[in-house]
Write a structure and sequence with these properties.
- The chain folds into three domains: about 70 residues, no CATH class; about 210 residues, Alpha-Beta Barrel (TIM Barrel), CATH 3.20.20; about 100 residues, Beta Barrel (Lyase, Ornithine Decarboxylase, Chain A, domain 1), CATH 2.40.37.10.
- It is about 20% helix and about 25% strand.
- It contains eleven helices and 28 strands.
- The strands form seven sheets. It has a seven-stranded parallel sheet. A five-stranded parallel sheet has the order 1-3-5-7-9, with no helix packed on it. The chain has a five-stranded mixed sheet with strand order 10-28-11-21-27.
- Strand 17, helix 8 and strand 18 form a beta-alpha-beta unit.
- Helix 2 crosses helix 4 and helix 4 crosses helix 5.
- The protein starts with a strand and ends with a strand.
Length: about 450
């Protein structure tokens, strides 16, 4: 048993079996076939050589390079949110595993890229991953501000993160002022009509919870115009103006070199001078990687927290979060010319072996393209196999004809639909849709496992 390590310029080199009681502050390299057990947090980067075994009983703050070893992170704070949800595993068509530690890691990695505050967007049930455990995890990781779609989501965030600041992106629906006060949530005001109604509510109720003012610096989306924002600047001279955040949205954040990005950044900077002292927010997940000038006072990542690549065309800096597996319920041997029930558009061109798993578009598995040009794949027995045709409501057929090990495609065996070689971005590309759509459609008929490792 070693004591906690002090920070040093040289990395900690583990060449045997080490057990450290406390946190490690410096970078760490665990050599081939060696082991390290840290009973605390790892503040520096971590490199794991092939065959090495690492257990951290806290959190890993730096970059992780795993070259073929094993890493287990038992974050005590996040561990209390580990749970299962949905139908029991034997009764479910698929098993959805959601790595809470990876979500916390992704948020922390993004927070380290900016000087201001890093918030979190947990709308659409945290992009399909579960708003309650995800919000609790992010709050434990240090996130203080959350963005949701509507008041129902705001109430759920308030229940698990009672001290947080909550903004409702869809704005103020007519007559909902008292509900905002009850949930202690702040509307994102998207029009002058909303602002007028909010003023009536706050003046009559004396509610001082504040609101965000959404300004359209680009060509699309919600928000008041720049002209309207300029005219409202006089309001700022009133002590009761109530504006707690200026926000806008980068229209072309996925294209960092797009010339309109700089234009939107400059426009918001000009507006901030009129609203001196009010914090501003412009960058979403890809916007964080456009330019430090886009960071303003607060960034609001969403999809990147859940493993979606915020830098299209480049290596994904985020850890994968979700894994979806399904159980084979039937094996079919087809003659040339035969098809699968409810699977119009795909016909066996040769003697084929097809397995059926009980997952379909009702579970959120994407359904696009025709049966003949389907690019969707699954992993069966460690190999990529083509989806046979289009998913039906409750079933998915997989062509395993070329699988060398037929025992891997027996009834009761598991196949991988998301995970390993098939990331969320890969599935979205094959389905000709977006990664956010794939995630947010993940159904609740799955047996869900929330874990932290």
């Amino acid at each position: 048993m070693l004591l906690a390590q002090e920070a040093a310029e040289e990395p900690l080199l583990v060449s045997g079996s080490s057990d450290i009681n406390g946190s490690v502050l410096n970078d760490t390299i665990v050599q081939r076939n060696c082991s390290l057990h840290i009973r605390g947090n790892l503040k520096g980067s971590l490199t794991i050589e092939p065959g090495a075994n690492v257990i951290v009983e806290g959190s890993v703050a730096g970059k992780v390079v795993n070259r073929g070893g094993r890493l287990v992170v038992n974050n005590r704070g996040i561990a209390e949110f580990v749970r299962v949800d949905g139908p029991a595993e034997p009764e479910a068509g698929g098993i959805l595993r959601i790595n809470l530690a990876a979500i916390a890691f992704n948020w922390d990695a993004l927070a380290k890229r900016v000087e201001g505050e890093c918030a979190a967007v947990v709308k659409a049930d945290a992009y399909g991953c579960g708003i309650d455990p995800v919000t609790a995890t992010l709050a434990e990781a240090g996130c203080k501000t959350f963005f949701v779609s509507n008041l129902a989501e705001a109430k759920r965030v308030r229940a698990v993160a009672p001290k947080s600041t909550i903004y409702v992106l869809n704005g103020l629906y007519a007559g909902t002022g008292p509900v905002f006060a009850e949930a202690n949530a702040r509307p994102v005001i998207n029009s002058l009509i909303e602002l007028a109604e909010w003023d009536v509510f706050t003046s009559s109720s004396q509610w001082k919870g504040g609101f965000a003012l959404n300004v359209k610096t680009g060509t699309g989306g919600l928000g008041i115009s720049l002209e309207e924002a300029g005219a409202l600047a006089g309001r700022f001279r009133l002590s009761s103006h109530g504006i707690t955040l200026l926000i806008s949205h980068l229209d072309n954040a996925a294209s960092p070199d797009h010339p309109l990005n700089d234009r939107q950044i400059r426009l918001l900077q000009d507006l901030r001078r009129l609203y001196d002292g009010v914090p501003a927010s412009l960058a979403n997940s890809p916007g964080i990687f456009v330019s430090p000038k886009a960071h303003c006072d607060l960034v609001r990542p969403g999809s990147a927290l859940y493993g979606v690549n915020p830098t299209p065309g480049a290596r994904n800096p985020m850890l994968p979060v979700v894994e979806l597996r399904a159980r084979i319920v039937q094996v079919l041997n087809l003659a040339p010319g035969e098809t699968v029930t409810h699977n119009a558009g795909w016909i066996a061109k040769r003697s084929a072996r097809v397995v059926i798993v009980p997952v379909g578009y009702a579970d959120g598995y994407p359904r696009s393209g025709s049966g003949s040009d389907n690019a969707l794949q699954a992993i069966v027995g460690g190999r990529l196999c083509r989806i046979a045709g289009r998913p039906s409501m409750d079933q998915l057929a997989i062509d395993v004809t070329d699988l060398s090990d037929s025992t891997a495609a027996r009834r009761g065996e598991m196949v991988t639909l998301i995970g390993g070689e098939i990331g969320v971005d890969d599935l979205a590309t094959a389905a000709k849709t977006t990664s956010c759509e794939v995630l947010s459609h993940l159904g609740h008929r799955f047996h869900r496992i929330y874990y932290a490792s």
